[in-house]
Amino acid sequence: MKPWIRRGALGLGALALVAVAAVLLGEHLGERRTQRKIDLKVTSVPYRTDAAAVERGRYLFNSRGCTECHAVNGGGRTLVDDGKGTKLAGPNITAGNPVLAAYKPEGWVRSVRHGVGADGRVLRLMPSEDYNRLTDDDLAAVVAYARQLAPLGGNPTGTIELPLPARVLYGFGAIPDAFEKIDHSLAPSQPVAEAVSAPHGRYVAQMCTGCHGAAFQGGKIAGAPPNWPPAARLAPGEGSAMVRYPDVATFARMIKTGKRPDGSAIAVMPFESISQMSDTDAQALHVYLAALPSK
120, 107 in Cβ contact below 8 A? Predict the structure, then answer.
């Protein structure tokens, strides 16, 4: 064998060993990340059981994306099952889940606002960055509604099955948990009047940050299946999707139908849930997004 061929073969072999070592290390680090415990102190939000809180919670649960993972009945549902190694399913959050049945008020705060379960482990599917700034009243309302759902059996912890490349990327931190995206020092939002206004629209828009980013600049959704398209840019600037929605009525129609003005369907967006948004919330969201400063 010629020397250069031998050297090339040795080089390729060394690269293969490095690649295998990186994969094994990534998987090991990923397992460590899933098992890490977070000691997070939170301020408890007292339980409510009054009819007004339950009704407000029903509206928020159905219009803010909760049903996409937990189903309308709270029993959990499958989000992704591509037959290629990716399966994601939300957990049962009714009283039939023994984990949830044992929750205390602070456990709900950690899970909803901070993405941390009762055992201190991060909730890898829970998009808590969308709910971190809920007012205390709205958090109490969502919890009130969830706690009165009919008890169901089913998946108590959810399902996260990822193909090898995704597990390695997670291990090396390329796929962040919601916990890592949140500024946990921020206080809850203060209530604002429900109106077609920018302040109320800003509050509603918090549910969009998990996919569209804190600055609503869009782009690839971290941790999303590879066949998902990038999230649309909602902030002003080149490529902003908001140019399609010059007025409140056009935007509200998209929220209700899941279609652009030209009739084409928008992929991935959780329209089953957000189509339940009230006219006030949808219109206020447009007012806020349309008023974002150009950068």
Answer: no
Does the pTM surpass 0.70? The reply is yes
Q: Tell me how far the alpha carbon of residue 288 is from its chain's centroid.
A: 21
pLDDT < 50 regions, the chain: none
Cα 234 from Cα 182, distance rounded (Å): 20
**pLDDT tens per residue, range 229-282:** 999 999 998 999 999 999 999 999 999 999 999 999 998 899 999 999 999 999
Percent composition of the chain: helix, strand, coil (DSSP 3-state, to 5):
45, 5, 50
